[in-house]
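Deliverable D4.2, example record:
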Amino acid sequence: MTTTSQATTTTPRPTLAVGDTAPPVEHRLTRTDLVQYAGASGDLNPMHHDEPKAQAAGMPSVFGHGMLSMGIVGRALTDWVSVAALRRFEVRFTTQSWPGDTLTTRLTVTEVRDDEDGARVAEVDCRLVNQDDADVIAGTALVELA
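Output generated by the structure prediction step:
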């Protein structure tokens, strides 16, 4: 999934360098999170909230929505660099998350360059890992710099 936005010139841009990291955001996933996200998003797939149906489908339990995981990373990213500075955000859903998992964001600047339009930008490696250090989300973002 890819989300694209155009940054405005009125919002201050971050100053970042290769190797900079955002403060990690940690979230312990609960069944309540899954039900709240299902209601807010309209994604009422029973695999995310109905234990017997999830188990009948061969799952050990209900599991987290991929877009909920993406939202955790997206929120950490925009809290760090601002919504206005975000030009691109794309991820791959790499493994499922389960109630009780502790999810932690990892955002690291991997490149700073001049974009084709002359703007200074940073590539950010975006990850959400579980308590076993396995990627739940792996992706990148492009951020416009000051």
